[in-house]
C-alpha cells in the first residue's frame, strides 16, 4: 500500500499536542506545529514577579496592544525585533524542566514543567520590553474629553479613569494593583500635562496642550543631547542638512563660521570642535575623517576650556584652515552645531508625536511647538532654505551644462563598435578592389540634369539571381500583367 | 551547362575592357541565342548593352539560361593572360559557382585554365525599345574618340548638334570654347573613313564628355561607330563587334543645364 504524506500527518496529529516535538517514532516525522508556540521575551530585571502583560489601547493607533505593567516599576512597551522575510530565521528553544536561577527575570506566569519541551519556532521574533511613559497611555482618553479647550472642565482623576474603563478594561484592573501605586504613578503623569486645582482633599485636573507640548519637548531635548540612533541620524539629520558639494569654493562658508565664533565667544571652542564634527558627517570629506576623530574626543574637554578671547582666535584660524584644506570637495555650506542640534531636536519631537500621540493631537502639538521657549527653529529654517536653494541651483546647473553624465560605454560595446567598423572598412576595401579606376572616376562626374535610364526605358523588373539562375519572376510577371 | 568557344578571343577582352570602366559587376546572361549583358553605371545615367550572338562562337552550347555574375575587374585580371591568337572557351555548370575559362594556344600546345568565382548580382533589367532616331551618324570610331578626348580638355559636357549641314560637337568651358564639325564624307577606297549622316529632323543635345570618353574605350572593337540621337531620348553609341553582335551604350542627355 502506498503510503502518503497525508496518512503520516494524521498519525502524528493523533499524538499528544504538547509533546509533539518529543515523539521519536521516526526520524523524519514532522510534528504538528504547536497552536500556542512559545515566544521569546527580553524583560527588564527590575520588573517584579507581580508584573503582568496586559492589553491596553495603543496611544497612536487606538488598537489594543500588549504592554508589560509592573506595579513597582511602571509600564513597559514591547518592541518586536524580527528578521526580514527574505532571510528566514528561527529560534531553537529549550526549557528543560528546571526553573531558571533568577525568578526575577521570569515574570511570565508560564508554568515550567517537563512537558514544556523543545521547540523550533518558525519565526525568529524577539520581544524586548522597554520602559514607556504611562502618560502616553492615558493621553487618548484625555483628549477625547477635551474637544475644545473652552469646554474643558476640571475633573478628578477618578472621573478620568472612569472614562478609561470603557476603552480598555485592563487598565482599570491594573489601577487597583500594588496598593494604588500604579494609580499614583498615573496621577503624577496626569499632573504633568494638566492644569491642576486642589479642591479640598481632592485634586482636579484639566488637560493642557501647552503642558503636553512642553513635556514632549523636554523628552525630545533629552533624546537630542546625544546623536540619534544611526539610521535615524543619517536619514533625518545628516541628509537634510547636507549642502551640495560644489567644485568652486565659496567664500561665504568661512565667513559665516568666523562670524559665529566671534559673535558668540563663549561657544567658540564648542563651535570649533563640532564644526569639524559636522563636516565629518558629510561623506565627501575624506581628509577630515582623521581629524574629526580627534576633535570628537575634544568635544568633551572643550566645554571645560576657559572661553577667553585667545581661544576664539585660534578656533577661527582652525576653521579657516579646515576649509582651505579641502577646497575642491567642500560642500557649499556646513551646518553649525546649533543647526545640527536643532534639527535633532525637531526630529526627536516629531518622532515622539508620530509614534505615541494620536494624529489629531499631533497636529496641534506641531503648531504649538514654535511658541515653546528654547524651540526657536529660525536658524535651522534659514539654513534649510539656503540648502534647498543651493540644491536647486546645483540641479539647474547640472541639467544645463553637464555633458559628462553621458552614458559611458563599456568595453564590450567598444569592442563591438570596433568590430563593426573593421568589418565595414573591410567591406569597403573589398568593394574598392572590385572597382576599376574608370568606375571610380565616373562617380565624380557631375550628373545634374541627367535623367535616370529607368526614366527612358521601361523596367522589366528586378532580376534576382541565385547561382546564376533567376530565382523569382514575380516582379517581372507583375510588370507584364500590368502592361 | 554552357560551353562557348570563341576563336576571335580578343573580342571578349576588348568588350570587357570597354565595359569595366563603366560597370563594376554585371551578369552575363547566357541563353541559346548567345551571351547578353545589360548593366548601368552607378549613377544609372548610362547603360551598356552587349550581345554576343551564338554565331560568334564555334561551337556554342547553352542548355539552360544562366546568369554569370562577374566582377569585371576580376575578369580583366584573368583575361590579361589571354594571348593574341588564343582560343577562348567559356564553361559553366547549370548552377555555377565559378566560370571556367580556358585559353588554348593555336600555335603551341599550351592550355591555360582559369576558374573565376561568380557572384549573385541582383540588377534591374530595362526593356529597351527599338527607336526611330531623328539623327543617325556613322563615323570612324577613332574619329569619335579623338573628338571626345579633345573636347574634354575644354569642358565637361558637349553639345551635339545634328543638322542637314553636318554634325557639330561644340563645348564651352572656363578657358574658352571649341567645336568640331563633321560633314557627310564618302571615301570609296577607304570606306571605314566614311561619315554618314541620316537626318529626319535637326537635333541638339548635350552630354557629359566623361561618359562619352568612357564609351570610346570600346573603340578597338570596331573601326566604325554609330551615334543615334533623338530629342528627349538617350544617345545611343553602338559598336558592331562581329556580324550582328554589338556593344551599345546609352547615355541620358543633360537637360536644363545650359548656362
UniProtKB/TrEMBL annotation, chain A:
InterPro entries: RNase_H2_suB, RNase_H2_suB_wHTH, Rnh202_N. The keyword Cell membrane does not apply. One of its GO terms (biological process) is RNA catabolic process. The keyword Hydrolase does not apply. It holds the Pfam family RNase_H2-Ydr279. One of its GO terms (cellular component) is ribonuclease H2 complex. Residues 42-133 form the Rnh202 triple barrel domain. Residues 1-33, 249-326, 418-446 are annotated as: Disordered. Residues 10-23, 253-263, 290-326 have a biased composition (Low complexity). Residues 136-365 form the Ribonuclease H2 subunit B wHTH domain. Residues 24-33, 264-283 have a biased composition (Polar residues). Non catalytic subunit of RNase H2, an endonuclease that specifically degrades the RNA of RNA:DNA hybrids. Participates in DNA replication, possibly by mediating the removal of lagging-strand Okazaki fragment RNA primers during DNA replication. Mediates the excision of single ribonucleotides from DNA:RNA duplexes. This is Ribonuclease H2 subunit B.
Automatic annotation (TrEMBL), chain B:
This is DNA sliding clamp PCNA. One of its GO terms (cellular component) is PCNA complex. The keyword Heme does not apply. Residues 127-254 form the Proliferating cell nuclear antigen PCNA C-terminal domain. Keywords: DNA replication, DNA-binding, Nucleus. Residues 1-124 form the Proliferating cell nuclear antigen PCNA N-terminal domain. It holds the Pfam family PCNA_N. The lineage of its organism: Eukaryota, Fungi, Dikarya, Ascomycota, Pezizomycotina. This protein is an auxiliary protein of DNA polymerase delta and is involved in the control of eukaryotic DNA replication by increasing the polymerase's processibility during elongation of the leading strand. Involved in DNA repair. Gene3D superfamilies: DNA Polymerase III, subunit A, domain 2 (3.10.150.10).
